[in-house]
TrEMBL record:
The lineage of its organism: Eukaryota, Metazoa, Chordata, Craniata, Vertebrata. The DHHC domain is required for palmitoyltransferase activity. The keyword Transferase applies. This is Palmitoyltransferase. It is found in: Membrane. It catalyses: L-cysteinyl-[protein] + hexadecanoyl-CoA = S-hexadecanoyl-L-cysteinyl-[protein] + CoA. GO terms for cellular component: membrane. It is an enzyme of class 2 (transferase). The chain crosses the membrane at residues 16-36, 52-70, 170-194, 221-243.
Length: 379
């Protein structure tokens, strides 16, 4: 068999295997629905009012949880715009150069027309040799997706997708609603768990009296196991949600928390932080009513991010010369990112073709003095 055919079969098998964690979560959720709705609410709870309230609240949480999970899985990660890709002539010119410094000169020339402020640890332009593009700020190459992802946070096997600019809000809501889902099940199922442990004096008497208080053996098993599984998932989900809430408040991704971004003046873990309020709005948007809904409402286009370091750098030229786009004008007036209604943010996410402002390259020349001889190629 040809090598290309073997690689295709291997990739196909890998794609199938990547869906196993998602299938596992789907089966767990399907079983929990059966156990809670049928075995607990319909078969075990006797009071009609209690049964109706539990079912109504449960289904509201369940729908929001499944909606957020679906959005996280099937929202395609955004890739850099064509402005960041090398043209055919630039590719030929780069291939003809053998020395790293000469290649960096070419990349610095291209980067002068792009809103790129982060560098490699050696001060070089961040370039993806695999995708043949200059990486926008906060963009990284995912070896699983085999492409560069805008504001990549991490590749999550539980959603079989990269979590990044386009679906980070959905991922946050998925964590929040899944935690709420587990906590609600734990709270409403608690009385049966307590009944199991508190009835009688000895273990076999407690078990006998408990079993006599429940309708049948099948319901007993599902109700008990439902409580234990929901409790355990609640602990892990709570820790993960708290961590990502901290990241949002600090305006960092998971990758940036592990390895701080590098700017011209050096490493700065808070380089993209704009303050608590603006950090949250950058992910969830300006309109609070859309925050709990799994629809995109974030700000920006994913290719450029406001940073206080840009405005504080005296050698960086103004972001808003005459005739530039309105978003840059607003940034120059002191606002770190434009205040946009939801529909405009959605439109820009899908169809944005921003025109970058001209730059005299002062900061690039400063960075060039400290640049390394190699091009970064993240995998």
């Amino acid at each position: 068999m040809a090598p290309s055919g073997s690689r295709s079969i291997k990739k196909g098998c890998q794609r199938v295997l990547y869906w196993i964690p998602v299938l596992f979560i789907a089966l767990i959720v399907a079983w929990s629905y059966y156990a809670y709705v049928l075995q607990l609410c319909i078969e075990s709870i006797e009071h009609t009012a209690e049964k109706v309230i539990y079912l109504l609240v449960y289904h509201v949480i369940f729908i929001m949880f499944v909606w957020a999970y679906w959005q996280t899985i099937f929202t395609r990660p955004m890739n850099p715009l064509k402005e960041f890709h090398l043209s055919y002539s630039d590719k030929e010119l780069l291939e003809r150069e053998d020395r790293g410094e000469s290649q960096q000169e070419i990349l610095r020339r291209i980067a002068r027309d792009l809103p790129i402020y982060t560098r490699t640890n050696s001060g070089a332009i961040r370039f993806c040799d695999h995708c043949q593009l200059l990486k926008p700020d906060r963009c990284h190459h995912c070896s699983v997706c085999d492409k560069c992802i805008l504001k990549m946070d991490h590749h999550c096997p539980w959603v079989n997708n990269c979590v990044g600019f386009s679906n980070y809000k959905f991922f946050m809501l998925f964590l929040a609603y899944s935690l709420l889902y587990c906590l609600f099940i734990t709270a409403t199922d608690l009385q049966y768990f307590v009944k199991f442990w508190l009835v009688g004096g000895r273990a076999h008497f407690r078990l006998r009296e408990y079993l006599n208080g429940l309708p049948d053996t099948q319901a007993k098993f599902h109700i008990l196991f439902l409580f234990f599984s929901a409790s355990m998932f609640s602990v892990s989900l709570a820790s993960l949600l708290i961590y990502h809430c901290w990241l949002v408040c600090k305006n960092r991704s998971t990758l940036e928390a592990v390895r701080a971004p590098v700017f011209c003046h050096g490493t700065d873990k808070s380089g993209f932080s704009l303050g608590f309020s603006k950090n949250v709005r950058q992910v969830f948007g300006d309109e609070v009513k859309y925050w709990p809904v799994p629809v995109f409402s974030g700000l920006g286009d994913g290719c450029s991010f406001p940073t206080c370091l840009v405005n504080l750098d005296p050698e960086r030229p103004s972001l808003s010369p005459a005739g530039s786009n309105p978003a840059n004008k607003i940034a120059a007036e002191g606002r770190q990112f434009p205040s946009r209604p939801l529909t405009e943010s959605q439109s820009r996410l899908l169809t944005s073709t921003p025109s970058w402002s001209e730059s005299d390259g002062a900061t690039d020349r400063k960075c060039a003095s400290n640049s390394g001889m190699t091009i970064e190629n993240e995998a």
